[in-house]
Design goal:
Elements (H helix, E strand, L loop, with lengths): L1 H49 L4 H25 L14 H22 L11 H10 L4 H30 L8 H13 L8 H21 L2 H32 L2
Helix pairs in contact: 1-2, 1-4, 2-5, 3-7, 3-8, 5-6, 5-7, 5-8, 6-7, 7-8
Length: about 260
């Protein structure tokens, strides 16, 4: 009788420890989203405004903040013994298929975005501060380059490492009902509403993007392919203006 009582207490203790660990993990994730999404932009804006500096300095501070957030995430993954998500894997021709699928998804969701553009809230919670920054100094080539790097390189690496590499291996890993994919997609969608686009259309748009990247990670088990697809998706935003710039440059310098 005493043995069964002790065994029951041990089970309760284990359940409590597991529950406590899950709760702590959730709070850590929430804190990290705040740190990586809200704080870098907010701190960058306040520092630039207080010092009377313009858009270039803000972009530089934002870049440094996000790089710092990524290094913090790597430290956390190492502490959790989860650096296996960066495991090296050989080249696979399926990568081309996933890049093509990324292009198709970009086109389909791009049409969806344009179709409902009138219902989308494009305001940022820091719009007033952005106006002050721009009054101190307009963005130059440096801001353009940093914006491109943030969108195409740093952003995808940071988001995929957290939303896919970490979350999908912690919550509902390899779920029969794809709960890991659903959760990852929803969190990806919600994280894009922290600073702007606080409307149902944007939530659906970003969540669908998140579902797609989550499926890529689920099917390939290769975080590098997922990051590559995300980078390519974001690069397509710049593809048209880059093409226009290059074609005009070639035309005016070589054919006139």
């Amino acid at each position: 009788m005493l043995g069964s009582t002790a065994s029951g207490q041990d089970n309760l203790s284990k359940k409590y420890d597991e529950k406590h660990k899950e709760t702590k993990t959730i709070w850590n994730i929430f804190a990290y989203f705040l740190l990586s999404t809200y704080l870098p932009q907010t701190i960058g804006l306040y520092v630039a405004i207080i010092l009377g500096l313009g858009a270039d300095v803000y972009s530089l501070i934002l870049t440094m903040g996000l790089v710092g957030s990524f290094l913090l995430l790597i430290w956390w993954l190492k502490k959790q013994k989860m650096l296996f998500i960066f495991e090296k894997k050989s080249w696979n021709w399926s990568t081309i298929f996933y890049l093509f699928a990324t292009y198709v998804v970009h086109q389909v969701l791009g049409n969806f975005w344009e179709r409902f553009a009138h219902l989308i809230n494009h305001r940022n919670i820091h719009d007033v501060y952005f106006a002050l920054i721009l009054s101190n100094g307009q963005p130059t080539f440096l801001s353009t380059v940093l914006s491109f790097i943030l969108t195409v390189v740093i952003g995808p690496i940071l988001e995929e490492t957290l939303d896919r590499g970490y979350l999908m291996n912690i919550f509902f890993s390899k779920s029969k009902y794809y709960l890991d994919v659903i959760l990852s997609g929803l969190i990806f969608g919600l994280s894009h509403l922290i600073l702007s686009h606080r409307d149902p259309i944007s939530l659906l748009y970003y969540s669908l993007i998140g579902f797609f990247f989550a499926l890529v990670y689920r099917w390939t088990k290769n975080l590098k392919i997922t990051i590559l697809c995300h980078s390519f998706f974001n690069f397509l935003i710049y593809a048209k203006p880059i093409w226009i710039f290059v074609s005009n440059y070639v035309y005016y310098h070589f054919f006139r």
